[in-house]
Specification:
Elements: E1 3-4, H1 21-31, E2 35-38, H2 47-57, E3 60-68, E4 74-79, H3 82-86, H4 88-95, H5 103-106, E5 110-112, E6 118-121, H6 134-143, E7 147-150, H7 160-163, E8 175-178, H8 181-190, E9 201-203, H9 222-229
Parallel strand pairs: 1-2, 2-3, 7-8, 8-9
Antiparallel strand pairs: 3-4, 4-7, 5-6
């Protein structure tokens, strides 16, 4: 199925205000995607609205988030069930450093309902490092029933290779996100302990604007989906 499993709604301060649940789901549908995930920074509070809109328009979803560890590494949490995804929020809240958002500087952090009506504002700045290591972030995603995908692993900022220098052999992740086939080959070259055939790879948009949402270019094989969810 054609997918894009990394995009940000208007809850993420770095995303456009137009990234509302209805706009995201309908743009994905127009583009021909079959499976999406919205992965806001350090929050799952937009997911109930995403769930309702996705079901209404007929597009399949995984329920997501993008967590930032204390090492400043970004890790996607993907969940097959909304109720499992929502279990993560109290833990996130307990690990937040409590820095107030400055909307005029960082951007608004809007929580929407299924009608794209604002029902809340997140006051704590979301683009921060949690008080939890990458191992602890991954463990908590797993404890809540989700899968952990290392985000944009070759980026210059907030990637595991930039912040740690490499992907540790004993790290218990479930998938790796790259931006191209060339990047996948480079990851394998730099990490000979990573087995290509045993790894679930993702190429996502990391969309912060509607126009950035992926075209139907990337296909998630049934075998890879089963590796994640059985």
């Amino acid at each position: 199925m054609f997918y894009d499993l990394h995009m940000h709604s208007c809850l993420s301060p770095c995303a456009d205000d137009e990234m509302t649940p209805n706009n995201i789901c309908n743009m994905a549908l127009i583009k021909g995607l079959e499976l999406i995930a919205v992965t806001d920074h350090n929050s799952v509070r937009q997911q109930p609205a995403i769930d309702k809109v996705a079901k209404a328009v007929g597009i399949r979803v995984l329920y997501g988030c993008e967590l930032e560890s204390s090492e400043a590494v970004h890790c996607l949490g993907l969940f097959a069930r909304l109720e499992d995804n929502q279990k993560l929020q109290p833990w996130i809240d307990s690990q937040m450093p409590g820095i107030p958002n400055k909307p005029d500087y960082y951007g608004k952090q809007q929580i929407m309902n299924e009608f794209d009506q604002e029902i809340g504002i997140e006051d704590q700045l979301l683009i921060v490092s949690l008080n939890a290591s990458l191992d602890e972030v991954i463990d908590e995603i797993h404890r809540c029933g989700g899968k952990a995908v290392l985000a944009h692993v070759l980026d210059r900022k907030n990637s595991i290779t930039h912040e740690l220098g490499f992907i540790p052999e004993d790290l218990k992740y479930d998938g790796i996100e790259v931006k191209s086939e060339e990047q996948r080959q480079l990851v394998l070259k730099l990490h000979p302990w990573i087995k290509d055939e045993e790894t679930v790879w993702f190429i996502d948009s990391d969309a912060h604007r509607l126009t950035d949402i992926s075209e139907p270019d990337h296909w998630l094989r049934d075998s890879d989906f089963r590796k994640l969810w059985g």
